[in-house]
Amino acid sequence: MLDAAPSVSPQPEFESPTLGSRLMRRKPVDQMVAEGGQGEGGTLRRSLSMWQLTAISIGATLGTGIFVILGEATPKAGPAIVISFVLAGLTALFSALSYAELAGTVPVSGSSYSYSYATMGEIVAWLCGWCLVLEYGVSVSAVAVGWGQYLNELLEGTIGLTIPEAVSAPLGEGGFINLPALVVVLLAMVFLMRGAKESARLNTIMVIVKIVTLVIFCVIGFMGIKAGNYAPLAPLGITGIMAGSAVLFFSYIGFDAASTAGEEAKNPKRDLPRAIMLSLLIVTVLYCLVALVAVGAMPWQDFAGTEAALSQIMKDVSGHTFWGVVLAAGAVVSIASVVFAVLYGQTRILFAMSRDGLIPKVFAKVDARTGTPKVNVMIVSLFCGTLAAFIPLGELANATSIGTLFAFALVNVSVIILRYKRPDMPRSFRVALFPVTPILGVIACVGNMFQLDGITWLYFGGWMAVGLVFYFCYGLRRSRLATAEK
């Protein structure tokens, strides 16, 4: 009798990852931290102190809401614009606490993009990163548009000339190109290419100038306050206050800029949370003080269509053009600082996305001499400068707000997920009243999103659709996690 042939166990066939598993693949936190600073051809340099990180966040935040958006938001809320600032600040605070915890736990350049990658998967991270391109990149353009307004105020007060409207206003607002906006973006590009440490020093100087300028405004403007300008406090009711808050949230964009410097901070786990919270506190106090003085010194109805409102108030109260010129000069420096700091944040986020393979490698290429992603800075600056030159401010600001709110909501969710999945992970800062605080952060962000009008949602939907097309055509197959699976 022949022996039976030995049975052979079937070899398991290799199963390629399903689309669902590919979309939800996560990048381990430990891997993110280990890759810190590494780029194509060089590494980022750790040279930023806590005060420089704070100045980056203040530089990215302080200026836009007061110098540019105040004229648009005040007609929506009336004298209650101060309450709108407080509500917008509270909305930012919930998210700032979550940013502070994650920045101290995952100190990398990708900010909320990286936090989402570690907790919710690649597709969510991509959508978050795409929103950050909207938040940072487009807000650079939106802020730059307003820079020309104050530059004209300064030129008129000093030499009696202004830049012709044809080359100082975008299409649709009486001009063909906003040349000053393009110039300020290109100037920021030049300084950013010199190195993080040198750039931080310049930014700190500009931040000091803008704070001093706003303090001077409060002192001068206080003498022109008329009690009657505060009555009625809320002529447009709670609806007006909420509408003003939704618009003013744009003015808080930037407090998270310090989190994009996670790979260039000297002591990121300690300094990043401190910088985020300190910058938000300083900015909120200044915003509320300036708004309180401004609506007391000028009837709220007169703010409509006035993008250089503070300069006008200084001239009216003092009776001299000198103080208006001082305010205009401070505003020119202030808004240039916002452009500078936000542009910095955008390049570092794209650096992280490029290192992960989701966008072309050129964005992660680091210059060995300066330790900066030079090509990245050039590409982003030219893109933002082009937008600033041709797109009106209002639509840009609103589109930026909705993208930012979406990204902030994801950060709050990331804190919750990471707390439950990695409860023992060392954290240099912890959100108070967890999980209530991040949940309130999500609710506040979503609530503010629905305060924005339909056309803004249409722009946002179009932006996200373009992002998804890019991801499925490029990032899905080229991400570093995808290549590791092969």
Q: Please count the beta strands (DSSP E, at least 2 residues each).
A: 0
What does the radius of gyration come to? 24 Å
Encode the helix/strand succession as letters.
HHHHHHHHHHHHHHHHHH
Structural class: mainly alpha
Chain-averaged pLDDT: 84
Number of helices: 18
Proportion of strand residues: under 5%
Basic shape: globular
Poorly predicted parts: 1-14
CA distance, first residue to last residue: 48 Å
The helix content, as a percent range, equals: 55-70%
Biggest sheet layout:
none
Helix-strand layout with pairing:
Layout: H1 19-23, H2 29-34, H3 50-61, H4 64-77, H5 81-105, H6 112-119, H7 122-158, H8 179-192, H9 196-222, H10 237-248, H11 268-297, H12 309-318, H13 321-355, H14 374-390, H15 393-421, H16 436-449, H17 454-478, H18 480-485
Helix pairs in contact: 3-9, 3-11, 3-13, 4-10, 4-11, 5-10, 5-11, 5-15, 5-16, 6-7, 6-15, 7-8, 7-13, 7-14, 7-15, 7-17, 8-13, 8-14, 9-11, 9-13, 12-13, 13-14, 15-16, 15-17
Structure description:
Helices cover 67% and strands 0% of the residues. The protein is mostly helical and 486 residues long. Helix 3 (50-61) crosses helix 9 and helix 7 packs antiparallel against helix 13 (321-355). Residues 1-14 have low confidence and may be disordered.
What would the keywords be for this entry?
mainly alpha, 67% helix, globular
At a glance:
It contains 18 helices and no strands. It has 486 residues and is mainly alpha-helical. Helix 5 (81-105) crosses helix 10 (237-248).
